[in-house]
Amino acid sequence: MLHAIGSKKELTELEYYAHVADILENELVQELKNYRHHISTNRFQHCVNVSYYNYLICRFFRLDATSAARAGLLHDLYYYDTKDYRRDYRRSGCIRSHNAHHPHVALCNACELFSVNAIEEDIITKHMWPLTKSRPQYKEGYVIVIVDKYCAALEVIVPKMRMAMRKLRRKKKAAA
Ligand SMILES: [Fe+2]
Ligand SMILES: [Fe+2]
Q: Which residues contact 66 (CB under 8 A, 6 or more apart)?
């Protein structure tokens, strides 16, 4: 089963899947499941979430939905714990912040595994804008800027809401 947060659709049965199957099925991309991301999800699921909504929005606006979907899956393709990087950054004070660093690591990793076009490269490297200096060069790059933050917010809020609902249900049952 493969779902994006906030959607019940089985992604492997959609047209979307044909555009990204080679990336999703890659062993090294699958390894992202071992990295925690945004507190309560893993990096693979976050990339799926961003990729799917990137695809839907870009398709709706008749932009390059395929590049948007592929770059969405690759935008956080890095293999270290974000917390560890931030701790080392604070200690040393002389290396790039995580916001500036990880998009370039993700692009290097993506280029080793897949062929990456100019739009995808721009989407991956600028996805942290405006927290980083360079603006996206393509419209698809502005889509991921919004989608990435939207998904991050959902990934934090949805599990908390589910937990609160479960508690409420338990309380109601106990009171009945
Ligand atoms: Fe990122
Ligand atoms: Fe992200």
A: 19, 55
User: Where do we find the tokens 């390894």?
Assistant: 31
Listed residues: CB within 5 A of ion ligand 1: 76
Q: Under CATH, to which class is 11-175 assigned?
A: mainly alpha
Task: Count how many Cα atoms sit within 13 Å of the Cα of residue 170 in the half-sphere of its side chain.
Answer: 6
The secondary element (H helix, E strand) that includes residue 42 is: strand 41-42
Residue 75 CA, ligand 2 centroid: distance in Å? 6
Which residue in 170, 44, 11 sits closest to 1, CA to CA?
11
Q: Is the pLDDT of residue 35 over 70?
A: yes
* pLDDT > 80? residue 153: yes
* Distance in Å, CA 130 to ligand 2 centroid: 14
Distance 76 CA to ligand 2 centre (A): 6
Ligand 2 ion: Cβ-proximal residues, 5 Å cutoff? 76, 148
Whether 94 shows a pLDDT value over 70: the answer reads: no
Of the bound ligands, which one is closest to the alpha carbon of residue 127? 1
What distance in angstroms lies between residue 172's CA and the mean position of ligand 1's atoms? 40
For the chain, helix (H) and strand (E) counts, in that order, are: 8, 2
Among the listed residues 48, 57, 55, the one whose alpha carbon sits nearest the alpha carbon of residue 23: 48
